[in-house]
Amino acid sequence: MYVFTPPEGRSWGLTFESLEAKLRERNPDEFVRIEAGGPVRGSSMHFGITLGDEQLEGLARLSSEGVAVLDCNAHLATEFVLWLRDRVVPTGMTVTFNTEWGLEDDMPPTPVPDAPRPDIVAAFVAHIEETGGLD
């Protein structure tokens, strides 16, 4: 799982409605569900997103603002974050990332490089290697 968030103390102004609209611009049939249960109604949004030939699942939260994609490799995570940065995140704002393994190890989020696609993939792979996620 790759988790993408704004820098600490900042906000993208994310809303479920705006994220759903951006997902539906890509594909009107994308799966979107806002969780009604839990302590806060509408506390998380689950969605599907198609990247190339791959269909991924993701989730978004407004409290601890961020968006995650599940069960994907560094290449697909790169495709997702490039779309996120281009279509969802306000222009000029940084996107930080972490992974499931990084979160378990209490690693702080790392800025996604403002670099070509191969450099972003390399940063994601290096993070996974650092956490032992490839073991």
What key phrases describe this protein's structure?
24% strand; seven-stranded antiparallel sheet; 135 residues; single chain; 33% helix; alpha+beta; 4 helices
Task: Give, in order, the helices and strands.
Answer: EHEEEEHEHEH
Q: Mind describing the biggest β-sheet?
A: 7 strands, antiparallel
The total count of helices amounts to 4
What is the straight-line distance between the termini? 16 Å
- Tally of DSSP β-strands: 7
Structural class: alpha+beta
Residue stretches low in confidence (pLDDT < 50, at least 5 long) are none
Instruction: Give the spatial strand order of the biggest sheet.
Output: 2-3-4-5-1-6-7
* Average pLDDT for all residues: 90
Structural account:
The protein has helices spanning about 15-25, 75-85, 100-105, 115-130; strands spanning about 1-5, 30-35, 45-50, 55-60, 65-70, 95-100, 110. It has about 140 residues and is α+β, with helices and mostly antiparallel strands. A seven-stranded antiparallel beta sheet has the order 2-3-4-5-1-6-7. Helix 2 crosses helix 4 (about 115-130). The two termini are about 15 Å apart. The model has no long low-confidence stretch (mean pLDDT about 90).
